[in-house]
Amino acid sequence: VAGQRAASRAAAMEEAPPSPRVFLNHLDSYCGRNIGEYLSTCSVGATLESPDEEEEGDENYSVFEDPTAPKRQVYEIVGTLSKPESTNPRFAKETYAASPQNELLSHLLECEIVLYNITEDASQIEEATWAASALHAEIETFAKRKLFILISTIMTWGNSKPPDPENPEIAFNDDDFRKRKSHPSFTAYINAEKHIARLGKTNKKKFLTYIVTSGHQYGAEEGLFHYFFKMCWLGETPAIPVFGDGKNIIPTIHIRDLAVVLQNVAEHKPDFQYVLAVDTSMHTLEELVKGISKNIGPGKIEKIPKEDAFLSKELTQMQLDMLFVNLRMEPFYVKENFNVKWVAEAGLIENIAQVIMEYKQTRGLMPLKVFIHGPPGSGKSTIAKELCKHYKLHYVWINDVISEKIAYLEKIVAKEADRMEEKVEEGEGEEDNEQEEGENIEAAKELLDAIKENMKQNKGNLDDEYLIKIMKDKLMSMPCRNQGYVLDGFPETYKQAVDLFKEGEEEEAKGKMPKFNQIIIPEFIFSLTASDEFLTNRIINLPEMKVAGTHYTEDQFLQTLRRFRNLNTDDVTVLNYFDELEIHPQFIDIAVYEDSENSLTVPKIIKEIGEPRNYGLTEEEKEALERQAAEERLVKEAQEKAEQEYKEAKEREERMARWEEWNKQQEEVKKQEQELLEAQSIPLRNYLMKNVMPTLMQGINECCRIRPDDPVNFLAEYIFKNSPDID
């Protein structure tokens, strides 16, 4: 039996054909990356199986792989990159440069399937046309039939007249491709479609060409609609713009569904050259933007004139043209002839939760949720605010949240009078919206009155019932759900934690892990620890200006500290709650750092949390940082120059001082030498004056009187004759 299995395994390996090689341009682009990644993992020929066979295969699947079964084939992906500096995608076996063309052609000839996507970069139209023509010129050298699939855009239908002018509800389908008229800005696209389609008709046994016209792609990190997703996620605007009246219908398709359609085309090799790749939705621009705003943004939209759209720096002319398209389309051929396991057949809005999760996960935008726990005076607020600044999170402090909630409710209630006035002036309006708004105002008014009454009864404090509701509303708000938050000191008790984070109203069974709301539960718990003595000394040493107006006065601080110790020495504490959920707190002894500003504690927490999960710096922030860096560099250079000049001036001054000191010393030496010389010359002078000068002066006088011819000899003889020592 073992011999038979080995033989079967060897035969299967010998019979297994090589994986089909697929070329795809711009593997590092949004479309190229997602299509390439999908094709690199899907089984070759999977779309040729009937749904029943696939289900049966799934049921019979076992974790113990049959060694005799042939190895599952997947597509081998190769292609080009849009940016030479881009990292090679992990799913790509090889990447090539687009030039020189003769080298690229040699690589194309090695591939059974060539996919050219022109939906993202208009410069690829020329390259795609050349590639198809160059392959067609080599058709006689093909050992096997090759497929060339052009991924085009529904914008080549942009100016098409409705199929039935009397019934505008009728949608275009694949059969209408001959009637299509391109948007003026997409003429080059339709010309490329026609040219490539013609090339595929000359020798179908060796070279097939297809045109897959893609709806506007969404899903994963988002393509065209990323502008709206990003604006909603950032939460910096109260309403998301809808350009124009928003009533234009936009054909769309999930990027993974587009990849499945391409796989079907490659494997089915249909007789029909033109395939519409769109989902079954017929959403308007307003519906799309409203759905995105409601589920990830502020929940509101604002219609602005089309002209204002061109002022946006983030949208190109091509993207704006795509947003203004108005087409009804249905994927008739795809639904009737292909085996498509749809990711989002009904469209973006019906699958918005899944699409948002893909968007966040693919772009690394998962919320970061942190809870800072600790006694008063430990620096919770300072640390929480520093973390918010570093990670661009929302600071959540119970007092601020209460104030915000009251202000928000008062604002809603104040609009009631304005709403009634507008209703009288405008007459009949949108009844559903008015009814919903009226209900919101009534609910807001009721809650506001209840909060104020409760605070009045509790001397400015709120019962847990209202605290939990207000805090839960804050944590469930879109900004906290998108970016995340840092909770400063709340909840304080086990019960508060259970009520705040529980999911639903059902009671939990004893001994079981309590259910919790995964949307708002903290991911990181940091508990600051320190002795009462350390905390008291820290508060005592605080400047008076920091203590004024806070609870850090001596009596209040000690009272608050005692309350904290009592709450956290019970059998069941707030930290026990997180332990039960396997979210174990990390304890940080702030006394170890002896750092009143917590400048050492914050980096430790940042190291534990890891990298930020956001878009990073905006262009404006980058420019501001560059300006700041340039200013700091100029200031530093000026300081260094001033220091150098000061140093040189000081050195000159010291040199001059040393020079003057040296000159003084030289003068003093000369003076001392002169005095010494004079002192030493006195005995000699006296000797000469006594023994030589009298005779010498007489001789000189005599010499002057006589004036001999040889005065020197005369003087010498005179001194010799008249010297007193000579007898």
UniProtKB/TrEMBL annotation:
<dbReference type="InterPro" id="IPR007858">
    <property type="entry name" value="Dpy-30_motif"/>
</dbReference>
<keyword id="KW-0175">Coiled coil</keyword>
<protein>
    <submittedName>
        <fullName>KAD7 kinase</fullName>
    </submittedName>
</protein>
<keyword id="KW-0418">Kinase</keyword>
<keyword id="KW-0547">Nucleotide-binding</keyword>
<dbReference type="Pfam" id="PF00406">
    <property type="entry name" value="ADK"/>
</dbReference>
<keyword id="KW-0808">Transferase</keyword>
<dbReference type="GO" id="GO:0006139">
    <property type="term" value="P:nucleobase-containing compound metabolic process"/>
</dbReference>
<dbReference type="InterPro" id="IPR036291">
    <property type="entry name" value="NAD(P)-bd_dom_sf"/>
</dbReference>
<dbReference type="InterPro" id="IPR000850">
    <property type="entry name" value="Adenylat/UMP-CMP_kin"/>
</dbReference>
<dbReference type="GO" id="GO:0005524">
    <property type="term" value="F:ATP binding"/>
</dbReference>
<dbReference type="InterPro" id="IPR027417">
    <property type="entry name" value="P-loop_NTPase"/>
</dbReference>
<feature type="coiled-coil region">
    <location>
        <begin position="417"/>
        <end position="461"/>
    </location>
</feature>
<dbReference type="GO" id="GO:0019205">
    <property type="term" value="F:nucleobase-containing compound kinase activity"/>
</dbReference>
<dbReference type="InterPro" id="IPR047499">
    <property type="entry name" value="DD_AK7"/>
</dbReference>
<dbReference type="Pfam" id="PF05186">
    <property type="entry name" value="Dpy-30"/>
</dbReference>
<feature type="coiled-coil region">
    <location>
        <begin position="621"/>
        <end position="682"/>
    </location>
</feature>
